[in-house]
Design a protein that fits this description.
The complex is a heterodimer of chains A (479) and B (81). Chain A has 479 residues and is of the alpha/beta class. Chain A has helices spanning 42-50, 57-64, 69-80, 139-151, 172-189, 206-214, 227-233, 243-254, 273-283, 305-327, 338-346, 392-401, 416-419, 424-430, 435-453, 468-474, and strands at 13-15, 19-23, 26-31, 36-39, 84-86, 95-96, 102-108, 158-164, 193-199, 218-222, 260-267, 287-292, 348-349, 360-363, 368-370, 384-385, 389-390. Helices cover 60% and strands 0% of the residues of chain B. The radius of gyration of chain B is 17 Å and the shape is elongated. Classes of the chains: A alpha/beta (479), B mainly alpha (81).
Chain lengths: 479, 81
């Protein structure tokens, strides 16, 4: 039957560019242009070696030594997934991710923080500003911010206001004011509005928790693992560890059904990724955002040498973490691979890591508009302010600096369609994002995709809605 | 009760195609039997109705991929905690 798929006059075949790697006991192949992946078997590997511009599939199979059904199945699979290409069709190419109409504003409502965490880029409210800044956002700036954000671009549809600091709960009055005004504004213009906050959790009262619950906040709660390690890095200004205070906040937030709670931890030599995920699971946390400390290599918190290898191994172990969760119909606790897996499922390549400066903006305490909160105070990238709006020229310059089309190291990289060139703030600050880590993440996502794509591709959608594909096909959930 | 004509695996395959191929989706929702060239049982029709309900969830996730910050999906920030 497969044989019928071929015509009498076949075109010439050749091999597309691909990347191969081992993860666990399996070898994976990834085609960067089609964003397709397979778990390679010996037939695949042999075929890819011999294809070179031959014009008949039978001749290729014979030369490979697999002129049988197995060889044929492998040939068709590699052809469909874009590893073998024809002179007629050229290489299969994924399309680009569509422009998003969602927009996120990361609003710095307080520069001040009650903690003095070792790795914090906020630098006690100084960020990268040349002059000292006010410690709190005021009413006028907050009101202007809401007006400006809703008039910035008529194509924006779903709005997310993500409150940031310093510690944002030190300025709850402004958060309440902005939430109520944004909600009202969204209602008037017919746009859905969502809210999120990144908080150290030390000041979460019952009332604050109820407020977040009422407005269905996504809450990123900073919690560096267990008490000993948390208290090493995250201390109050008097030197006391903050774990007990955070834990009280965590307990107030964790049982409220309107809150989507993420445990957020900074991975460092003292706190490996696998230990964070184990601890979070013990705490009953369902979603985790865990990022390595972004510091210069000379810093004791940077992951290098043995610690970098431990981290890379932990990232690779996430393949099993994701596959187990997907097979059980549960969302994976870690979320870093979700977009990459969905990109491969949908065949959509990205040219940028994120939409900073397009669909993501940061608004600083003084009303400055930046590509995101990580750029606060970097005068070259101040894109405007809440009074006058965006400056087109600055925005264009920012967009010319980052992304795979503008970064030399991305030109021939197999991972660029999945990683988008790394975080612009990190590229700006450190010269490049950590490509070794980004590639390890890409390979892990590829492995998860490849393990499901042939036997049950719809299972991959479990990264966003577990069991929904089962419900569609059977009318019930419960795999 | 009339026996369904589409297996669960086939329904998943149809759902995947409907998710990724907008023309197929349009035809499927307009004329399911004509598009699938098979007679559908009420249970199969119900499955297609469920597809119709579920498609926007995935559409929304795929459409917002470019806006999704890679290290923290669902509207989260990147960088340091």
């Amino acid at each position: 039957m497969i044989e019928n798929e071929f015509r009498q006059n076949e075109p010439r075949y050749s091999v597309a560019r691909y990347h191969s790697f081992h993860l666990g006991n399996a070898k994976y192949l990834f085609a960067p242009l089609s964003l397709e992946a397979v778990i390679a078997n010996e037939v695949d590997l042999r075929l890819l070696l011999v294809v070179g511009h031959m014009s008949h599939h039978r001749a290729i199979l014979q030369r490979a030594g697999f002129d049988d059904e197995r060889g044929m199945e492998s040939f068709v699979r590699l052809l469909k997934r874009g590893f073998i290409v024809t002179t007629e069709s050229g290489e299969l190419r994924a399309s680009l991710v569509p422009a998003s109409s969602d927009v996120t504003f990361m609003v710095g409502v307080a520069n001040y923080c009650n903690l003095t965490c070792r790795y914090c880029y906020v630098r006690e409210g100084a960020f990268d500003f040349e002059q000292p800044q006010a410690s709190h956002m005021d009413n006028t700036t907050a009101d202007l911010a809401i007006e400006t954000t809703f008039s910035m671009n008529p194509s924006f549809n779903r709005y997310c206001f993500h409150f940031y600091g310093g510690e944002p709960t030190l300025n709850m009055a402004i958060i309440r004011r902005m939430v109520e005004r944004a909600q009202e504004k969204g209602r008037v213009v017919g746009r859905p509005v969502e809210f999120a906050i990144t908080t150290n959790g030390t000041l979460i009262t019952k009332e604050i928790a109820e407020f977040f619950n009422h407005y269905r906040f996504t809450v990123y709660l900073s919690l560096d693992g267990d008490q000993k390690r948390h208290d090493l890095n995250r201390r109050f200004r008097n030197g006391r560890g903050s774990f007990s205070a955070v834990w009280r906040g965590f307990e107030r937030l964790s049982n409220l059904r309107g809150i989507r709670l993420f445990g957020s931890a900074v991975i460092s030599p003292d706190l490996p990724l696998h230990q964070v995920l184990t601890l979070f699971a013990d705490y009953g946390i369902k979603h985790a955002k865990t990022e390595r400390a972004h510091v210069f290599e000379s810093d004791s918190l940077s992951l290098r040498g043995k610690n970098l290898n431990i981290y890379l191994e932990d990232v690779r172990r996430l393949a099993d973490h994701y596959c187990k969760a997907l097979a059980e119909g549960k969302p994976p606790m870690d979320t870093r691979l979700v977009s990459k897996i969905l990109q491969m499922f949908a065949g959509k390549a990205r040219t940028n890591f994120c939409q900073a400066g397009r669909n993501v903006f940061g608004i600083s305490v003084d009303g400055g508009i930046y590509p995101c909160a990580l750029f606060f105070g970097r005068s070259d990238f101040r894109l405007g302010d809440v009074l006058t709006g965006l400056t087109g020229e600055r925005l264009e310059r920012f967009n010319r600096c980052f992304g795979i089309l503008h970064q030399k190291q991305c030109a021939d990289c197999w991972a660029s369609g999945l990683c988008g060139g790394g975080c612009p703030a990190m590229v700006d600050r450190f010269g490049s994002d950590n490509c070794t880590i980004l590639k390890a993440e890409a390979e892990t996502a590829i492995a998860v995709y490849a393990r499901f794509v042939e036997k049950d591709p719809m299972c991959l959608l479990g990264v966003i809605a577990p069991n929904l594909a089962d419900w569609v096909s059977s009318g019930h959930t419960g795999s | 009760m009339e026996k369904p004509n589409l297996s669960e695996a086939k329904r998943k395959e149809i759902f995947r195609k409907a998710l990724l191929d907008k023309t197929f989706r349009e035809n499927l929702l307009k004329d399911p039997e004509g598009t699938l060239t098979t007679k559908l049982a009420p249970d199969d029709i119900a499955a297609i109705e469920r597809m119709k309900a579920a498609l926007p969830v995935f559409d929304s996730a795929i459409d917002s991929l470019s806006g999704t910050v890679l290290c923290a999906p669902f509207g989260g920030p990147c960088g340091i905690a």
